[in-house]
């Protein structure tokens, strides 16, 4: 098999034969479609997606006066006298009769390479096999591809290479492009949903002087003119809540956030968040809102991208109302059902009883005993959680979160249900309002779809003195080695001192939501250019 440099050299020779040595003719700027031509092409692509009409006639019945339709796109296949062009994720056959093949365009037709950008014009035609094509008498070269597409049989199968060369992946694999069209449809639906409810879309800084808004390790950068150390934002939360203080009662932002953490099927260091804040609302109001919003996004996906066939790819259903379960109750149910009803066993069921979950001493004892049994990775996790709240939350992450799709299922047991998990410990929720009946927990929820956390929300803490104390506790955690702890944000405390109305805030991970709704296994499948290791040389 020829090497890539050899294939490239062969293409250069072919271009010189067909287009001449002047490379300006290989990459011409000349074709500029009119708005009418854009509309005509879009209409043809839409027409090809539907049933054939009487306008498509056999070659021997074509009317010389029939309109000649323009079509431009990338050459993706050759089949005898047919060229197959791809545009906007759809394919169009261009048929060249013998009279054209042996005419002035013949040389250009023979030397068109897969990957080249071409313009053709022709009349609607039905082939002998009943397919639709354009019977063409014009071919214009619009742009040369000096590299060949991936081998027809092996394809672009190396996953890492597909992510790295997304510009090839998108046109070689139509289903990949469909996912990113689905992403656009979902994000558009989220915007329309919030706009219709009076939310104002805003933009807040990406460069932050302090790390805050979430507990995560940040990326650092430096502003030379001000000689200032800055962080890429972990979350926009604290700036959006400043806008509540300023009088905007419903605000949202869709933007990039950055967390200096590991890479997995659910994590990318650069990701997209939707955060929305509503004055005079609680976390319960936002449960209703996010439930309706997710369903609206799902409807938009189905309407815009029917080719994805999302139902066959899903192991869950979206059937409001979603179950709502307290975090402590979820742990208790996990312990009680361990080894039954398809729920896998867990060593923790021998260390804790459900009635022990409110007893800090019992949890401390269970952690100590488990630390003597587990591997080094889990032992470090256990050692990093200090206090009843942090340990309760870690226990939830270890034994409940991985099996949520098993615990909460449809009545027939065939599919999992979305679930709101509520009542998180105060120790792991430094920006949330304490519950009035039990200050050890906060008014917070996380939404899980098919076991993936896609949303986090809570009633906001608006007492400046309590918030100041929470920030001080974060600094204490930092001093004990917690690299994800927040800074003390004195300006945010000052903003709260001017008075922030009662409010609730919501964060939705756009990438995970798209992953889940579009049936994609990895977050890299819904990010056009995910972060990758440097290419080996």
Total helices: the number is: 18
Multimeric state? single chain
Mean pLDDT across every amino acid position: 93
Summarize the biggest pleated sheet.
8 strands, mixed
- Percent of residues in helices: 25-40%
Task: Identify the strand order in the major beta sheet.
Answer: 7-11-12-17-16-15-14-13
Secondary-structure content class: alpha+beta
Share of residues in strands: 15-25%
Span from first to last CA? 21 Å
Unreliable segments (pLDDT under 50, ≥5 consecutive)?
none
**Gross morphology:** elongated
> How many strand segments?
17
Radius of gyration: 29 Å
Description:
The chain is an alpha+beta fold and 537 residues long. It has 18 helices and 17 strands. 36% of the residues lie in helices and 20% in strands. Helix 7 packs across helix 9, helix 7 (174-196) crosses helix 18 and helix 16 (464-479) packs antiparallel against helix 17.
């Amino acid at each position: 098999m020829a090497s890539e440099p050899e294939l490239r050299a062969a293409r250069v020779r072919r271009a010189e034969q067909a287009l001449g040595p002047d490379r300006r003719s290989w990459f011409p700027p000349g074709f500029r479609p009119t708005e009418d031509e854009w509309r005509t092409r879009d209409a043809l692509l839409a027409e090809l997606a539907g049933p054939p009409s009487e306008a498509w006639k056999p070659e021997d019945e074509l009317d010389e006066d029939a309109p000649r339709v323009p079509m431009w796109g990338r050459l993706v296949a050759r089949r005898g006298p047919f060229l197959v062009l791809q545009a906007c994720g759809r394919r169009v056959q261009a048929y060249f009769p013998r009279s054209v093949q042996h005419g002035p365009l013949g040389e250009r037709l023979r030397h068109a390479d897969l990957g080249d950008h071409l313009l053709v014009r022709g009349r609607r035609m039905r082939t002998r096999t009943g397919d639709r094509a354009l019977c063409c008498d014009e071919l214009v070269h619009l742009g040369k591809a000096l590299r060949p597409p991936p081998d027809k049989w092996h394809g672009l199968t190396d996953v890492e290479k597909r992510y790295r060369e997304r510009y090839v992946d998108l046109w070689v694999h139509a289903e990949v492009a469909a996912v990113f069209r689905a992403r656009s449809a979902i994000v558009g639906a989220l915007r329309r949903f919030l706009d219709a409810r009076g939310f104002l879309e805003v933009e807040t800084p990406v460069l932050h002087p302090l790390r805050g808004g979430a507990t995560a390790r940040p990326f650092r950068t430096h502003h030379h003119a001000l000689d200032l150390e800055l962080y890429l934002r972990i979350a926009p939360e604290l700036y959006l809540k400043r806008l509540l203080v300023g009088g905007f009662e419903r605000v949202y932002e869709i933007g990039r956030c950055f967390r200096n953490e590991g890479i997995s099927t659910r994590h990318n260091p650069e990701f997209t968040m939707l955060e929305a804040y509503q004055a005079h609302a609680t976390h319960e109001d936002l449960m209703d809102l996010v439930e309706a919003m997710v369903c609206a996004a799902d409807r938009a996906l189905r309407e815009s991208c029917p080719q994805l066939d999302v139902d066959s790819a899903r192991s869950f259903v979206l059937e409001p109302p979603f179950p709502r379960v307290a975090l402590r109750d979820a742990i208790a149910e996990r312990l009680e059902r361990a080894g039954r009803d398809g729920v896998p066993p867990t060593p923790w069921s021998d260390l804790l009883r459900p009635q022990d979950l409110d007893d800090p001493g019992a949890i401390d004892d269970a952690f100590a005993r488990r630390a003597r049994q587990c591997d080094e990775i889990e032992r470090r996790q256990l050692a990093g959680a200090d206090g009843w709240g942090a340990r309760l939350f870690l226990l939830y992450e270890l034994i409940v979160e991985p099996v949520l799709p098993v615990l909460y299922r449809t009545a027939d047991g065939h599919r999992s249900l979305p679930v709101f998990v509520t009542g998180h410990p105060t120790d792991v929720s430094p920006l949330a309002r304490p519950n009035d009946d039990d200050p050890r927990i906060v008014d917070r929820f996380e939404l899980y779809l098919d076991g993936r956390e896609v949303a986090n929300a809570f009633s906001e803490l608006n007492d400046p003195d309590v918030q100041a104390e929470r920030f001080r506790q974060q600094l204490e955690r930092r001093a004990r080695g917690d690299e994800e702890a927040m800074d003390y944000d004195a300006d945010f405390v000052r903003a709260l001192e001017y008075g922030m109305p009662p409010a609730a805030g919501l964060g939705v991970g756009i990438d995970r939501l798209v992953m889940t709704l579009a049936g994609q296994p990895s977050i890299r499948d819904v990010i056009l250019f995910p972060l990758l290791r440097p290419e080996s040389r």
